[in-house]
Design goal:
The protein is an alpha+beta fold. It has two domains: 100 residues, Roll (Ubiquitin-like (UB roll)), CATH 3.10.20; 126 residues, Fumarate Reductase Iron-sulfur Protein, Chain B, domain 2 (Orthogonal Bundle). Helix content is 31%, strand content 14%. The chain is built from nine helices and seven strands, in the order ββαβββββαααααααα. The strands form two sheets. It has a five-stranded mixed beta sheet with strand order 2-1-5-3-4. Helix 2 runs parallel beside helix 6 and helix 6 crosses helix 9. It is elongated, with a radius of gyration of 20 Å. The chain binds FE2/S2 (inorganic) cluster.
């Protein structure tokens, strides 16, 4: 079946302004948007640039805006969409080329919240074990694949890209609510700053955008509540 794809194009080395290019692709019933982009690149236009790796919704590299919504191209099936399919880079990030955006600032914010267990305050020569009940408390926090769909959909981030953004705050929650972690106060330098937790205006776009059905807004609210409870 033939389908049309209207794809955002931008070449920083050309004097041409960004534009949309339409491709017609003979798609199979089981194809995802990534399959269609691969068909364009491999059979029609090798200059088209986009990121992809795992093809299974794990690596997070293929996030892009498809028909107005942030999605994983490797998970979204072509047959679920009607008419011409519009494919654009993630909004809110600088476009480097076609569908490829600059993710340096995004990963810088993830790093800023210290996404690792801080557990050296009470030295032990034993393994730090966690009960199944305590492990369960991390459900909904640990599954993030760092695709950037949530941060890219956040109006607070659009107006201020120094804001840590929902992905980094969700990552902070994953460690702050780990019963083995002792780094809550250490992370507060960043989380309780003007570009941290309080920049979120609970708009919930991030919840809508997350391809893994996570809830960064809820994680942010829980971190704020803990901060208030501990009177930091
Ligand atoms: S290619 Fe890895 S998530 Fe899509």
């Amino acid at each position: 079946m033939e389908r049309q794809f209207k794809v955002f194009r931008y070449d920083p080395e050309s004097s041409k302004k960004p534009y949309f290019q339409t491709y017609t692709v003979d798609v199979q019933k089981s194809w995802t948007i990534l399959d269609a982009l691969n068909a364009i690149k491999w059979e029609q236009d090798g200059s088209l640039s986009y990121r992809r790796s795992c093809r299974h919704g794990i690596c997070g590299s293929c996030a892009m805006k498809i028909n107005g919504k942030n999605e994983l191209a490797c998970e979204l099936q072509v047959f679920t969409l009607k008419g011409v399919i519009k494919v654009e880079p993630l909004p809110g990030f600088e476009v480097l080329r076609d569908l490829v955006t600059d993710m340096d600032r995004f990963f810088g914010h993830i790093e800023a919240v210290k996404p690792w267990l801080i557990a050296g305050l009470s030295p032990t020569d034993k393994e730090r074990l966690q009960s199944p009940e305590d492990r369960k408390k991390l459900d909904g926090l640990y599954e993030c694949i760092l695709c950037g769909a949530c941060t890219s959909s956040c109006p607070s981030y659009w107006s201020n890209d120094d804001f840590l953004g929902p992905a980094a705050l969700l990552k902070a929650a994953r460690y702050c609510f780990d019963t083995r972690d002792e780094g809550f106060h250490e992370r507060m330098d960043v989380l309780n700053s003007r570009n941290g937790l309080w920049r979120c205006h609970t708009i919930f776009n991030c919840v809508e955008a997350c391809p893994k059905d996570l809830n960064p807004t809820e994680a942010i609210v829980r971190l704020r509540a803990r901060l208030a409870a501990e009177k930091i």
